[in-house]
Amino acid sequence: MNKKSPLFLIYIITKLSIGFIFAYAGFVKLIEPKAFAKVISQYDIVPDILLPYFAIGLPAIELIAGLGLIFNLRGSLFVVFFLLMLFLSVLGYGIFNNMNVDCGCFSQEEINGMNSLKVAFYRDIIMMAAVIFIFSYKKYLTKNRSLRLKTNIKEERG
Description:
Layout: H1 6-31, H2 33-43, H3 51-70, H4 76-96, H5 108-112, H6 117-157
């Protein structure tokens, strides 16, 4: 792993950016769970009795996954990937059904703003591409590390 490589720098910046985005999004929704519950209810896919649990649970998972990415906790990237798949599915559902709702992705200001579902959908596709890059680069780093270990072992034995 060459820590001076531009690709490594891009990897770190991308990972931290996605981590901060998810941590921020989760945090601001946890501040106003009732507002987020209202947004969730507009999609009409979660039973009313479960809305409070989703309005608190989903942002908590976002916050923890974002912090996990920032602090390099195992499994965090997979959780972010799963959340993005969920968000893309819900946004796609809203677009397909021509719903006039906001995504509720970030703060109350965004909920009150003019961000369309399509904008949020495309933004999430870009974040998904970033997550796939992070997965790929992590795999590359792991592969290189194991190759170096094998080479070092052979050199020590040789």
